[in-house]
Amino acid sequence: MSLTGHTSDGGSRVLVLAAGLVGAAGVALSAAAAHRGGVFTGTAANFLLMHAPAFLAIGLAGGNRCLKIASLVLLAGLLLFCGDLLARDFLGSRLFPMSAPIGGTLLIAGWVAIAVSALWRPRP
Predict the structure, then answer these.
(1) Cβ-proximal residues to 83 (8 Å cutoff; 6+ apart), any chain
(2) pLDDT tens string 44-74
């Protein structure tokens, strides 16, 4: 099994797993935001819920190497961005300086890489 856990049909079990975990975390955090409050928690929940279908689609469809790397960049961006927002609400401090901007930049880069992957030609 490779880094992205390829299946025989070209999909990625790891990305499907990530989709499920990211989606579940998004739902749980939405509930937490509704009951506990916390603007940052709601924003983190929204970001997680927005990205879960992307991981599911990439994981099921497979795709080229650029697309799979892009999904890992997205995942890293989510961890940093959402992690910082949640740390602010639950711990009262940042994850570490610049973690949200770095995470946000990784999210943007991941989406740009997804766009670039459409231009990527598979090796013969």
Answers:
(1) 95, 99, 103
(2) 999 999 999 999 999 998 878 889 899 999 9
